[in-house]
């Protein structure tokens, strides 16, 4: 089992543990704000399951039906997580409005607040693990899960601060207002996640800094060629696809041109692990004089 898959599996168990702690905090206090915090943890578990399935499916090798692999499964999972986040936000907003119209008594116990704080710390630690491993292995599903947990952490901190404020002021309506603010924050998180994931499904180019780096690698490893142009890139999970046209002298042999392509592909793979490079070789009269200059 790969590291990405092990981390995704562990995230499910962490999510279940946090959900249990937060629900216990809600039961001990009756706070709708803490209820909203616990309800979001249900989405955390669902997103962890979706991330695990996506990472597992994305790791499957290419086949006749999917010659480019199954990497985009991670984007599909991230979109699903975004939808779940939005639905959770709407549910929280509905509960907050009901409680604002008819405020219910709240019992703020040190035990309840302490358990919720413990769950928040656990979420914060695990979110850091997910984002770091997700970025190092270019797994959007893990990064999305980690960013979602970070949102949960900030929401929980706001809820805890607000609950303490209610204790100090005695204004019970603040509990519902805080839950409403949590819902808005979660709604924004869900929209941002879906937007990023849809960009991957629409084959957005990689970040400009990475494109510039790929250009430098091509320029520095294409000795013998004339130029490279029409560079295109896209991401699919942890894989980055690169393709471009390479212009070579008209009298160059096929074998020599092939050697140059192999050298470029090896250089890109070394600098951008997991990159899949496709090169279209062209004779020198196809040069555009606007592409990548060979050093």
TrEMBL record:
Residues 210-284 form the Cation efflux protein cytoplasmic domain. InterPro entries: Cation_efflux, Cation_efflux_CTD, Cation_efflux_CTD_sf, Cation_efflux_TM, Cation_efflux_TMD_sf, CDF_Transporter. It is found in: Cell membrane. Its main location: membrane. It is a multi-pass membrane protein. Keywords: Cell membrane, Membrane, Transmembrane, Transmembrane helix, Transport. Residues 9-202 form the Cation efflux protein transmembrane domain. GO terms for biological process: intracellular zinc ion homeostasis. Signal peptide: none annotated. The chain crosses the membrane at residues 7-26, 38-59, 75-93, 113-133, 153-171. This is Protein p34. It comes from Stappia indica. The lineage of its organism: Bacteria, Pseudomonadati, Pseudomonadota, Alphaproteobacteria, Hyphomicrobiales.
